[in-house]
Design goal:
The chain has about 180 residues and is mainly alpha-helical. Helices cover about 65% and strands about 0% of the residues. It has nine helices and two strands. The chain has a two-stranded antiparallel ribbon. α1 crosses α7.
Length: about 180
Amino acid sequence: MNPAITRAQVHFLAEQCSEAPDDFQPIATRLLKKQRRLSRFFEQNAAPLGLVPGQVALYMLSVCLRVVDQIGGRMYKVNSNHIEAATARVNDALGGIFPADDGFSERAKAHTDRAQLHLLDEVLWALYDRPDENAEQAHLEDHQKALIYVLLWTAVEAIDMVWQAPEGWDPESFEAPEAAEAE
């Protein structure tokens, strides 16, 4: 596994995507096209959720890809072997995380043997804890949120398998611009 991207860095980079959706759209399209096998896996497995939740899941996948892309290094293409290995890894842990009830998010966070756990905690925050400031946000049922999380967890495991963090990169050296300005 790669070193974990810090929570502050993940949050900062993810928020940049949501704060400039028009700028992010072509980037998201490019990243999803580069990881076509992973996006196809996502589209196929998110189909039972329905159109809007499936779109939410695909958007969140593109944000996860963007966060890793912004860190730098090299990201190779995810293939079916990576997806199978990631799926097996996630499936082994699901018994301790389900059912998809009020405690799902906390049980998922408590499972620390995850690739890029801060990125996955950001996913949980976006699905379960983000303030609903935008009336246009899609309302998702608990089972939909849980399935989206499991798909994203699988994707992040696969992404981490093909990502080489930049040489000499120190995740702890990051300071969010808001924190730097406050000093």
